[in-house]
Amino acid sequence: MKIVICGAGQVGSYAAEQLAGANHNITLIDSDSDRLRAIEDSLDVGTLQGNCAEASVLRDAGCADADMLIAATDRDEVNLLTVSLAKGVGTRRTIARVHHRAYFENHGLDYQAHLGIDHLICPEYSTSIAIAQTLRNPGALAIENFARGRIEIQEFEVSPDAPAVDKPLAQVTMPRGTLLLAVTRNQYVFLPDANTAMKPGDLAILAGNTETFQEARRLFHSEKNARRHVVIMGGPPLAVWLCRSLRSRNFAIRLFETNRIRAEELADKLDWVTVIHADPTDPNVFAEENIAHADVFVALLDDDEHNILGSAWAKSMGVDETVVLVQRPKYLHLYENVNIDRSFSPRHVAVTEIERTIDERPIKFMASLAKGVLDLFQVSVGADCKILNKPLKEISLAPHWIITAIRRGSEVRVPGRDDDIRAGDMLLVAGQHGMDAKLKDIFGVGRAS
Fold first, then answer.
1. Which of 96, 264, 333, 448 gives 436 a disulfide partner, CB atoms 3.0 to 4.6 angstroms apart?
2. What is the per-residue pLDDT for 377?
3. Handedness of CA 155, 159, 162, 166 (dihedral sign)
4. Is residue 413 packed enough to be buried (19+ CB in 10 Å), middle (13-18) or exposed (0-12)?
5. Among 143, 104, 151, 141, which Cα is nearest to 123's?
6. Backbone angles phi, psi at 222, to 5 degrees
C-alpha cells in the first residue's frame, strides 16, 4: 500500500517505522530537515521536506495516487486541512490525528464528515479509555478502537442473590442497549437464549452501552463495589480525558499538578475532581494526603523517568496498583522490573489504531472471549449481505453467532431486537471459535483472518 505520512514527530515516525516494516511504501513529509535526516539514516522510507498543508507539496509526495494519507503533526488545524487537501488531489483514504475535544467529538459541526475524513484518531483519548477500562475492571475487553468508549464488555460471576437468578431470560427485563453474550457453566460455554436461566456461580459475559451497563450488571451481580480512590500525577490533556472517562460514583479522584495556573484551570474544568497544587512524590505531601491508602496511582507527566520512578516509589510506599504513561518505547520494558502494574504508550495506541484502519479486510479478528472458546470479530457489511434491512428479531444466527454492536457513521450502540443491518455498517460479532467460515456465508464477504 502506498502511504504518505505528514509529521515526523513521535506518532508519525513510529507509524513510519511500523508500516515500513509491514512492507508498505512510505513517504514521510516534515518541515524539519534534521528530523527527516535522522529517519533516513534508520528507515527505508522516502522523505520530503515541506509544508504538508500545501497542495503542491502533497502532489510532490505522490498523494494523487496514494492509498492512504496520515496527518500526524502536532497541530490539529494543520492535520484537518491536510487531509481535506489530500482528498482533493486524489488520495483514496485519510486519517487525521487530533488533540482537541471539539474536533474529535464534533462539537458544533461534524468535522469528519464536513472535511471528508475517513478516520479521526486522538491518542490521548484512546489511551485514557484503555486506562479507564483497566481501572473499572481489569478483565474488561479493550474494544475502545471500535466503540470509542461507548460500549463495555465484562465477564463476572453471577451472585446467589442477584435479581435475575433462576429466571428464564425471557422474564428478565434487560435495560435497552445491553446484551448477555455468553455463559460459562461447569466449564461449558454457550450462547444463552430466551429459556436460559442464570445459576449462582455461572460466569456471565455482558455487553452494554456505557450508560446502561451497570444497571444490567446489577441484575446478575449483587456485590456492592467499594469506591476506588485514584491519584493522578500530572494534568496534561490526557488527564482531562481520563477524569471524564472515570466520572462516576465508583471513583474518587485526586489530581496533583505542580503548575499553579494549570491546576486552577483543571479545578474549573473538572469540578468533580479534587485538584491539588502539589507534587505527590514529595514525601511530606504523600504523607499529608494519605496517598499510601490510594487504590491506584496513575502517572501522566510528559517525563517518562519521573513517571516510572514516582510510580515505583508510590508502590513501595503501599499503593495497591500503579499505572504509568510512557512516551518513549525504550522505557516500556522497565515497568515490570520496578514493580509497576501497567504501562501505556499513546503513540503505540495511535499506531495500533492506524494499523487497524489500514487493514481493509471485511472480517477481522478482534479478541477472544471465555478463555478462547468464543471469538469476537469486526465485520464490514457489504451490499451482498443476506440479512440486510431485516430487524434482528427476524434473524437467527444462533447457536453460533450473536451481533454484539453496530457502528453506523459516528453512532455506536449495542443493538435491540428492532434494529436492522444496513450496507456500510460495521458490526462487532461474537461466536464460537472455529466457526468463522459461517460469517462468510452470512455476510457475503471474504473469509475471516
1. 448
2. 87
3. positive
4. middle
5. 104
6. -95, -5
Alpha helix positions (H), 149-271? 210-220, 237-245, 260-269
Fold of 226-351: Rossmann fold (3.40.50)
Residue 145 has pLDDT above 80, yes or no: no
8, 231, 237, 299, 305 from 302: Cα distances, Å: 18, 17, 11, 9, 9
pLDDT, residue 390, reads 86
Pick the CATH number of 2-121 from 1.10.3210.10, 3.40.50.1110, 3.40.50.720, 3.30.70.100: 3.40.50.720
Please say whether the structural domain 122-156+165-195+359-449 has been given the CATH code 2.40.50.140: no
Q: How far apart are CA 369 and CA 155, in angstroms?
A: 9
Task: Round to whole Å and give the CA distance between 157 and 174.
Answer: 17
Q: Is the Cβ–Cβ distance between 390 and 381 less than 8 Å?
A: no
Quick one: the chain helix, strand, coil %, rounded to 5?
35, 25, 40
List, for residues 345-396, the tens digit of each pLDDT value: 888 888 888 988 888 788 888 777 777 778 888 888 888 787 888 888 888 7
Per the model's pLDDT, the better-predicted residue between 25 and 190 turns out to be 25
Cα 232 → chain centroid: 20
Residue 397 in grid coordinates: 444466527
**Which residues have a Cβ under 8 Å from the Cβ of 59 and sit 6 or more positions away?**
89
- In tens, the pLDDT along 255-283 reads 999 999 999 999 999 999 999 999 999 99
185: its cell numbers: 457453566
pTM: 0.75
Instruction: Residue 428: name the closest of 381, 361, 392 by CA.
Output: 381
Q: Which three cell numbers stand for residue 23?
A: 512492507
